[in-house]
Design a protein that fits this description.
191 residues; alpha/beta; 8 helices; globular
């Protein structure tokens, strides 16, 4: 009797993991992309470093739509490039703040939240690539549970036919490794 129960439990678990794997393989955008929707407003827009520089362009769009009065750039290496993109897009220099020390999504969250708390910020719009939206939102929420975070990702190369030629395919697949990795390493539940 116990053997039969264990066999069914193992078989059921294998089926669930297999179905989840198939869903992730065929519909990754359904799992990775989180968008809080139009009309969201906040105290600040936080742009995470990385991507193909589509992130500051998305932040400039949101800024011009009055989603938030300022933009905070986070991420070593991309901070100055992203700042220049914002300036070229018409965002005033006085509305841009930079954190240029972080090198991971976890550091982006920890270093940025420390400064946001000091400035008494309560509502934050996160801008990143669509395939990075779930992990970044969960990471920021994990480290700043008293703050309200919204996700408004860039949809650059969202269409399946663009994944391979833009390199998004590889980055997107890595997210499926990083989600459980962040759960194990930092205790950040991806669900």
């Amino acid at each position: 009797m116990i053997r039969r129960f264990v066999f069914r439990a193992v078989l059921g678990s294998v089926l669930i993991v297999t179905l989840a794997g198939l869903l992730a393989y065929f519909y990754p955008e359904k799992i990775l992309c989180v968008d809080s929707g139009k009309g969201v407003t906040a105290d600040v827009i936080v742009v995470l470093g990385g991507g193909l520089h589509e992130r500051p362009q998305r932040a400039a769009e949101l800024f011009k739509a009055h989603a938030a009065p300022r933009i905070f750039l986070t991420g070593a290496g991309d901070d100055e490039i992203n700042r220049q993109i914002l300036l070229r897009a018409g965002v005033p220099a006085a509305a841009i703040e930079v954190e240029g020390q972080s090198k991971t999504t976890s550091e982006n969250a920890r270093f940025t939240i420390r400064r946001l708390r000091a400035e008494h910020v309560r509502r934050v719009i996160l801008v990143t690539s669509w395939y990075h939206a779930r992990r970044s939102l969960k990471t920021f929420t994990h480290y700043g549970p008293e703050l309200q975070f919204y996700s408004r990702p860039s949809y650059f190369a969202f269409d399946r036919e663009d994944w391979e030629k833009t390199g998004v395919n590889k980055r997107m697949r890595l997210e499926f490794l990083k989600l459980p990795g962040y759960w194990i390493r930092y205790g950040i539940n991806p669900f």
